[in-house]
Amino acid sequence: MTPLAEPLPAVPTPQLADVGPVEIGTCEDGTPYRLNLHGTHVLVAGATGSGKGSWIWSIIRGLLPATAAGLVQIWALDPKLMELSYGRRLFGDRYAADPEQCADLLDEAVKVMQERAGRFAGVQRSHVPTTDDPFVLVVVDEVAFLTAYQPDKHLRHRITAALATLTTQGRAVGVGVLAALQDPRKEVMNIRNLFPDKIALRLDESEQVDMVLGDGARDRGAHADLISPRPELGAGVAYVRLETSPDPVRVRAAYVSDTDIKAMANEYAGGEAV
What we know:
The protein is α/β, with parallel strands linked by helices and 274 residues long. 30% of the residues lie in helices and 18% in strands.
């Protein structure tokens, strides 16, 4: 059987509150794949049904003990009211779906970032998560609904400006962005190059691979356009290209079911273990 051809059950929630690399799923050689979120920004792109939710929820799941310990805050923007709403209780008052509320939440994240930058200036050059200064991960599902398809021009510009500010200045002070989208064209997501780490799930066209992962990625073996559209074979399968390595890695993220998400929400409502 082709490697990664079978769906993977959700990775167990970590026992320790760790902000370090989060176990997402499995590499082609069968070893666990761990993705770092702290100190970077991550863009996840894939066609409808490609399994973006597997990546988003595996990341959230791996950070839950750290959220309970106060070392991580997850801020959720859910303009489609689909993916993140099912686990809404996990995010407490750091959840927004209405576009104006999304803009407000992003502006608040920028304020946190700028306040930290002011305190850190001349004192420290990198962020260490603490309960006073936790790692803030801003999760944006279907970011194009806010940056391209939003009919209110003022809101669209405000949201794009906030995202650009966070992705250019946030990682040194412990504010990261995890954004997901379906359409990787530049006119839809003109700040995609501000994300150092990129994940390409199944894409509709071969040209889109380099749009997501960067020039030459497909020539290096990232055939995201050839991932099977059959969910049991291809959902969650992706090519990952990190800032630290030009070579794409093929990974399958674990499937976090509705039942898993409900259990997560029951245990960690509001970012705290209950």
